[in-house]
Design brief:
305 residues; alpha+beta; nine-stranded antiparallel sheet; 8 helices; 15 strands
Length: 305
């Protein structure tokens, strides 16, 4: 069995996919495995956490850790990979001279402030590089989003993000526990549009601004879910089961969608939501096959590793 760790997921291809890094051999190989419309069996062994990558801010390319180092559970990457990436998420709280050269260049690129809608009145404010904002929102699992304003650099964008957050009208973070209750909830882009217009109007009132109220609202459901899933009764449920005894167990079911890092597995009568980030950097065994002929509904299958 090839040893590999789960290191990512994505949407920027012919279908949604998982990313794994092999641990056998002198160097790691990065593999993308398409999962849209497939049957998936995944086993996780969470006894050892392995550094996954360093990230190039300018090219957006990530590289597997050349040393394949084991890291403590409180860390995501080893010291060398963190230093190579050179990214400080709290860049606005430190002097520019303390940032890496790559981050200084990255921060000087155009950024924008967005409002992301998840469900009902749950709206999040955030910033993103102008060229990467759609991917960032897909990774978060936003159901729709609109651009509030564009800026020449990240510093101006962060300043507006902080102002909008202080109004108390929106969130800066949506937790996985909240997302698990919303992924399968009924979602209407028309209702989302009404909520977003009202939110922007309130922000304008609080800040004395004139941000466009009727800005385009981009929907992401067609990327997350296949057409047959969006039209099924599953999308009218309040939530899926999310608690799983992961370490040493296997789950096997058909892939029904990928919303942010929420991988939805199931059949016509039941489903399981797996938040992939909880499995990042751990050993996994993944098998993909065509969806078998439908049979009688059954519960998820678990087995010892």
């Amino acid at each position: 069995m090839t040893k590999e760790i789960l290191s990512g997921y994505g949407f920027d291809g012919p279908g949604n996919y998982l990313v794994t890094d092999t641990l056998d051999g002198a160097t790691s190989e990065r593999i993308r495995t398409l999962i849209s419309g497939k049957h998936l069996r995944i086993t996780a062994n969470m006894q050892k956490k392995v550094c996954t990558w360093s990230y190039d801010l300018l090219s957006w390319a990530s590289t597997p850790c050349p040393q394949k180092r084991t890291v403590e559970k409180k860390y995501d990457t080893c010291f060398d990979c963190r230093r190579k990436s050179g990214f400080n998420p709290a860049f606005y709280q430190v002097d520019k001279s303390s940032l890496s050269q790559r981050q200084r260049e990255y921060n000087e690129q155009p950024h924008l402030v967005y409002l992301a809608h998840f469900w009902d009145d749950i709206v999040k404010v955030g910033i993103a590089n102008e060229r990467r904002w759609r991917i960032r929102l897909l990774e978060q699992g936003a159901r729709s989003a609109t651009i509030l304003w564009k800026f020449d650099d990240a510093y101006q964008a962060r300043a507006l993000e902080a102002e909008v957050s202080k109004t108390g009208l929106v969130r800066e973070r949506v937790m996985s526990a909240t997302k698990s209750k919303l992924i399968l909830a009924p979602y209407s882009i028309q209702k989302a549009s009404t909520v977003m217009r009202g939110t922007i109007r309130s922000i304008n009132d609080c800040l004395g601004q004139e941000f466009p109220i009727d800005a385009d609202l981009l929907s992401f459901d067609e990327t997350y879910f296949p057409a047959e899933f969006r039209s099924s009764q599953t999308m009218n449920r309040s939530s899926g089961k999310t608690e799983m005894p992961w370490d040493g167990y296997t789950v096997e079911w058909s892939v029904m969608g990928l919303c942010g890092d929420g991988l939805i597995l199931g059949n016509a009568s039941s489903e399981q939501i797996i938040f992939l980030k909880s499995l990042f950097w751990y050993l996994v065994d993944i098998h993909i096959s065509d969806i078998p002929n439908p049979g009688p509904p059954s519960e998820a299958q678990f087995s010892l590793f």
